[in-house]
Structure formats: C-alpha cells, structure tokens
C-alpha cells in the first residue's frame, strides 16, 4: 500500500550514513556486490550497541550483540510460540528447585562449557558474576563509579537486592539465596543482565568500556571488534558446546545502517543477509523478490509482537488536561493503517497481549478532536465563534464556541496564540518517528498546540532517557520509544517504566503519588496509587491477587493518568535472503543467529 501524503511536510533531509555499506560488506566477504559467500552472515541493523557490559546494557541494540556472545543459565525457546523457559548454561535434564519457603533457588549447571578465553565454566564463575552484580548495585558499598542503570530489575523498591548471596554447593551446583520470595526470578535469569562473563577476562569492580573493552562469554560467537557507527565483527567459537556441524557460517557481522531506505535496499541487493522488522513500504518488494523471504505476511504464520510502541509525555512539563487532550487529538487509524500499512494494531495497555496478566479491557483514548477541544475549554482555552483575537478564551469568557472550525484553531496555534508549545524528540533515520513528527505537526495544531521537532542521533536520544553525562529526561517533552520484554512478567512492563524511583526508562517522569493527586484520588489508598500497587504486585505471590493488582494498574494508567499516548503493537516481520535457514522469528523480537545455516 502506498502511504498517503496528506500529512507530508518538510523534514530534515537524511543523508544515509549507511550508504557505503555495500562496499564495506563486499570487501569483507570477498565477493561481488549483490552476492555473498556462505561463511558470513551480515545483519543490517539501525542501531549498534550503546553498552557492551551485560550488567549495564538496557537497550535492544546492545542486547542483540550480548545475546550472541554471552549466555545465561536459562533462556526462552524462541522456536516455541509460548516462549517456554529452557536451560542454557543450566543442566539440560536436571530441573532447578525451590526450597526454604521460596527463598532458595538451586540450579545444576552444564559441565561441558568453557569461556572464549579457555576458562572453565562452573558454579564459582556464576558466583563471581553475581558478586560483580552486587558491586554494580553498590550493595557492597565499594562502587565508586555509578550504580548500574538496570538496578531496578534486581532490587525491591526500597533498594534491597532480590539476591542476598549465592552459595557454591558443588563444582556444578549453585544456590541463589533471596532476601524475599520473588515469583519471576527464573525469568529474570533469562535477561542479559544475568548473563555470565569470564572471571579471568573481566574486571570485577569496573564496567566494560564499549569502545575499548572485550566481552568474553560462553556463547556461540566470539566478540572481535566494534567500529562505532559502522559494524561489529564476530567469529564462531570453535569449542562451543552446541557444536557447528549444522552450518558453514563462521563470521557474523552487525552492520549499522541508520537510514531505513538504505538498510532495506541493502537486503534487496544482498549486501546484507538478514533484516528484522523491515519497513512496511518494502514488504511487497521482499515478498516479490525471488532472492528474499518475508516472514509474517502469511496469516497462518502471523505473530503479534511483545514489543510495545508508545509516545511518552513528560508529566512534569505537560499536565493531565493537556495529556488527555493530546491523547484524543491523534489519528490512530492513520498510524496503523497508513504509516504502518496495516502491519500493527493499536496498543491498549502498557502490558501487551501475550504477557502474563496483560489486560486490554480498559478504554484507551480514541481519536476525537471535539473531545480534545472540550478538554482545553475546561482550562480556559478555545474558540468562541469569532475569527479574532477576542474570540479566544481568556479564562473568564464563557461565550459558547465552535468546536469544529479547524482553520481557526490551527491559525491560533501557529499565529502566536497557542495553548501550548511542545517538542517532539526523535532519532534521525527512524522513518516511523519522522513520520510521527509530521503527523503531530498536523494533528496537534487543530487543538491549539504547536509542535517543534528535535532530531538527533540514537545515542543522543537514548542518553536523554538514561540521563548520561549532561543529558537528562527534562530535555524530553514528547518522545516515541519502544519497550521489549526483558522477561515474561507484567512487572517488567510496569515497574521500570512508571516507578518514581526509576531513571533509565521512566522518561515520562510519572509518579503514582502525584498522578493520584492530579486526578483527584487519595494517594494514600493503595487502590488509587500506581506506585503502591506496583510495589505490592512484585511482592505478591498469589496469582489471583497479582492479576487484580495489575488490572487496576492498567486501568489507572490507560483511563485516568495517561502518561503515554498508547501507540501500537506490531505484527512480527523478518526478511532475509532465500538461502538462509534456521532463524526463529519470535514475538520477543530477539535475534539469535546460532541456529542459522545456508541451504
């Protein structure tokens, strides 16, 4: 489907920084442009890693690399639509056990694993890594750097870590001793922050430096080099316990191609061999091209992604009335049907369908410009039926006004009488976010709000959310971002994104206490306060009670507090060269290249 152009406006011209990628790949592979040798797999990605250290990284690009090089005790079976937890470094046939009132979790390990530096993997190596995590959390009191940004995934709200300590029961048996029962602990061990690095090659009391450090794990791929903004090179670990008899691939390349058009064209020319989440405008070309396969266009293989997409609204800068008005002013059908060409569904909750306790029964804001204008009327802004400056409410004027006169609302917004001026921050090269800027610049002036776009690199963008260096969340007003599951539990979609103790992911700076007051609820009552509810949710082990808690959290966020514009959840698409076999397309959006081979 060709995208409509009714919202077309001038956007900063993008120079495809990946424009020369074909030459780089061509030289690497020793082939000719448009061809490739079958000892190499090149993954074309918009983003390259921000953080190399598993105990720091919390973005998908970093996680994609870390997943190839290091491993956890457990993983998700990406070939299973239910994403069952399976052993990875844990023993394949001896199941883990809970004891001591659900405070002790004992895991038997594989006994045939070595790290890339030749060091043996055993229970002592696992213990060493969790002692390193204790340093990263500053549980030890010796971390003179910064507490890891993933701390909230490993701590109770009061800062107490989930894990009190570990015990080496025997060479290949490790026991985790928790400070309190934590239901999704095994799922947490599937997250990259719980992966195991070599004690012989990793500093225990310092983070890896992305530009210069070496990442040494047990995974199928050995980390070689990283040229920032260009590529990451890896080679197959010959002693990998899983073996290599299934494939001729010995080299893995992550090729950074920021510009979406260049990236998608690179697959059509076979300069890359794999592309996840291909742009919808290229779907028909991939489906028609005899040299590529598009996964996801057949209804029989359709999967709904567990990755959520939303527009955060800085609650410190944009009050509840404006957040509600903005939520009703956006044309959601245009997003799903035109910008995404029918490849996504509207998001109706922060917890996607497919995640435990996801509940889409609450009523999200629908496109209704009249309702948005009526909300602004309640704070004294609007058109009273005369095309003049005097036709705008000054807070005391109560003359009835026209809710339907688009032109005068737009004129007011762009002519110095805007109700509000907001910025929309995005990363250059992301076509969808660039399209969202155009949509916002069309939609929001119709309710008297002007929009200013701020485009920047991915690093500059994400570091505002992470508050790295001199960048912080106060620099964001409106921003579009995605969230993928670290593990399958509702808390993973709520606590990092909405807790008032969060920095790295709560870009909206939402606070359940303040939100309750702003909405007229008593914040001292748990039922009214998302912060209190989320704290109760991670402590509660009764599934029925937990379900009720998370249903209420979703209702408050979706219907009353509206810290986000609820965006979309995509259908899952991958595209790759026709000869590539073994890749498991999955709802979590994880890339895992070890099973791949060429026909």
Automatic annotation (TrEMBL):
Protein name: Solute-binding protein family 5 domain-containing protein
Family membership: Belongs to the bacterial solute-binding protein 5 family.
One Gene Ontology MF term: peptide transmembrane transporter activity
Xref: InterPro entries: Peptide/Ni-bd (IPR030678), SBP_5 (IPR039424), SBP_5_dom (IPR000914)
Bilayer-crossing regions: 6-28
Species whose genome carries this gene: marine sediment metagenome
All copies of domain Solute-binding protein family, residue ranges: 86-501
Organism ancestry: unclassified sequences, metagenomes, ecological metagenomes
SUPFAM superfamilies referenced in this protein's UniProt entry, alphabetically: Periplasmic binding protein-like II
One GO-annotated biological process of the protein: peptide transport
Keywords: Membrane, Signal, Transmembrane, Transmembrane helix, Transport
Cellular component, GO, one term: ATP-binding cassette (ABC) transporter complex
CDD domains for this protein: PBP2_NikA_DppA_OppA_like
